[in-house]
Design goal:
About 75% of the residues lie in helices and about 0% in strands. The protein is mostly helical.
């Protein structure tokens, strides 16, 4: 016998869950998973602990929903890399999207970095599954471009890793970047400067 479909959430329930996720993102990105508590998240969301637990049974469930959303957002630009497109245009677009994400999603980047630094205990299956499969696919695409002489030959996996490392630096180490660049160069224009530099680094 088929199980009944889960009841559709009301608008209020969706809004409350989003409020909790937003509060949890702020708490987790500051304190990491182990250093965060349900009480902290409830306080940041402006609600009681029992009320929060009506929407999520524990902090593990909240964290899981955040990480799933984060991975979907993080992987979207790589998924869009088109084998049929011009390689330089595709790589340039990917670098640009990653820099934009460093600018727009710094808390999410810190959350992900904290989880990785702890050994990825809660997301390792995702990394070994969905992430690996996608990187394998796109590394094959990049290798074909390199073999055809459209890009300089290199290890396609480390090529992708290097783009990750350099673009996410501008999210995870933004305080350091702004401190070193100073008030003149450390404004919003730093992201455009970074994108142009990285385009040259990887394509020239």
């Amino acid at each position: 016998m088929d199980k009944p479909a889960p009841a559709k959430r009301t608008r209020i329930q969706r809004e409350k869950r989003e409020l909790i996720r937003e509060a949890a993102l702020e708490v987790f990105s500051q304190h990491g998973f182990r250093g965060s508590t349900i009480d902290q998240i409830a306080e940041a969301a402006g609600m009681s602990k029992p009320n929060l637990l009506y929407y999520f049974k524990n902090k593990e469930e909240i964290f899981a929903t955040l990480i799933r959303r984060l991975l979907e957002t993080w992987l979207a630009p790589l998924k869009e890399m088109d084998e049929a497109g011009d390689p330089r245009t595709e790589i340039r677009s990917y670098i640009r999207r990653k820099i934009e994400m460093a600018r727009d999603y710094p808390r999410e980047s810190r959350l992900f970095a904290n989880e990785i630094l702890q050994g990825a205990p809660r997301i390792l299956p995702m990394l070994e599954g969905e992430l690996k499969a996608l990187v394998d696919e796109k590394a094959t695409v990049i290798a074909h471009w390199m073999h055809a002489g459209k890009l300089k030959k290199a290890d396609p996996y480390h090529f992708i890793f290097a783009i990750w490392a350099t673009t996410q630096h501008y999210a995870d180490f933004d305080v350091q970047v702004r401190a070193v660049l100073g008030p003149v160069r450390g404004g919003e224009g730093r992201f455009e400067d970074a994108a142009r530099f990285l385009e040259g680094l990887f394509l020239e």
